[in-house]
Amino acid sequence: MSSSSDFGFKVEPFHGSSYGLWSFKMKMSLMSKGLWSAVSGEEALPATKEQQAHAVIVLSLANSQLMHVIGSETARAASGKLVMFHRTQDMANRLWLKEMFASLKYTASSISGHVMELEELVMKM
């Protein structure tokens, strides 16, 4: 991350993977700029701050993710659309990983290889 002139941080563009990490970084970026309320709804912000928050979120998305937020008019709406889409995918992925974990059989040539496979699945969950 590189510092910008307003003491905020630039969040790497979100390409569709690791949504949880990206959304945490985005929250911290918005908080550092005093814009998080535009997403959380805790307090009303002036229109210019709302527009800034919306722009920060949209400009931190890769082109492949823009389709999810094109119709959004506010930072809260854009964030909500991203949550709806990516949290659903995360849940499906976790269920698939749990199924893989439950059906994992010893097929490696050594026990250490099997343990590594097992640990890799656990880390992904």
UniProtKB/TrEMBL annotation:
Pfam families in the cross-refs: Retrotran_gag_2
Origin superkingdom: Eukaryota
Name of the protein: DUF4219 domain-containing protein
Species of origin: Peronospora destructor
